[in-house]
Amino acid sequence: MDNEIFESILKITEKQDSDEFSLSIVATLAEIIPDSVVALFEYCQFTTPPYQCITSLSIEQQDSDKLRYLWDIKLPASSHQYIRDHYQALTHLTEYQTNDDRYHVFIPIDIEGKVVFGLEISSLRSFREKLEVLVAITKVCQNFYAILSYSERDSLTGLYNRRTYDNKLNSLLKNQQSSQLHHYHPELEQETRLLLPNSTTWLAIFDIDFFKKINDKFGHAYGDEVLLTLSQFMQQSFRNNDLLFRYGGEEFVLILEPVPFEQAVQVLNNFKTAVAQYKFPMVGHITISCGFAKISKKDHPKTVFDCADKALYYAKEHGRNSVYNYELLLEQGQIQHGIEEGDIELF
Ligand SMILES: Nc1nc2c(ncn2[C@@H]2O[C@H](COP(=O)(O)OP(=O)(O)OP(=O)(O)O)[C@@H](O)[C@H]2O)c(=O)[nH]1
């Protein structure tokens, strides 16, 4: 194997987390193709357009021979235009040239036969002679992505699993909203969204009401169908930057990107209402309860979860099919900080 490919693959596959892995692929390709812009797109069938650029990089050679890594730089308009017009046809490696004299290559990465990511590399100089290297690297990456995805996602719903939740929340708390991925980059010509004043990141827990009865009445397979449909509903209802997890059995966690309190209440209530109105095949109507809490920098992962869980418990005790916020319940004196009736837990 060519030494360059071997070294690159070794470097990329040292990463054990798919976010870091993605950044590493982009960096490696940008190093291999000097003066290029490398962008990584992620596909999501539930968004419009059904893909988003999650990161991009260009490496600049400085006078001192030092390299400057320009992350999340704006993509050439020609790349955006082409992808917007042709994304449905970009299911195999595509080379194209545009009027601005740029040479582009788009390489789709599929997992289990479905295109999940796409890499777009563009430069004012042709890099045809490097195509073989690019293809070799992306083929290995494709296999490695599949392994990482298997370990990070829940097999029934495809949402992130509990283990990934721990990792993502830990890194979010460590580095509140500054991670390279799943973060809105205004430079990337995506949906322009200004951060409203008083915006905070929120953690919400959803739990299906009386799910045991659904299993008991219709059988486990129909119970699974409800979990699957609900998770698809979640993917359609929340923004691409929001993170969704199947935390356990019939319990789901949502990390809501920074929005003001009123907006969080509205978004969560809309979802709760939409679920209650939906008629599941065979099972009919179901309801969910939700508790949510603010994620602040100083929080410990367990503390945030426990707070949202207390609000969820309150919802379960007060009629279900409802959404409650931990901080508001606390302010209203409906619950106490740390100590609950019949609860000797102290934190
Ligand atoms: N079909 C299916 N059922 C599951 C799965 N994981 C957990 N469950 C079931 O989910 C049910 C959860 O029951 P409980 O914790 O009593 O909660 P509940 O019946 O929803 O009641 P409340 O939460 O109090 O409204 C149990 O019967 C579990 O067996 C799964 O992957 N598939």
UniProtKB/TrEMBL annotation:
It comes from the Bacteria. Gene3D superfamilies: 3.30.70.270. PANTHER family: DIGUANYLATE CYCLASE DGCM-RELATED, REGULATORY COMPONENTS OF SENSORY TRANSDUCTION SYSTEM. The lineage of its organism: Bacteria, Pseudomonadati, Pseudomonadota, Gammaproteobacteria, Alteromonadales. It comes from Thalassotalea insulae. Residues 199-328 form the GGDEF domain. It is an enzyme of class 2 (transferase). It catalyses: 2 GTP = 3',3'-c-di-GMP + 2 diphosphate. This is diguanylate cyclase. It holds the Pfam family GGDEF. Its EC number is 2.7.7.65.
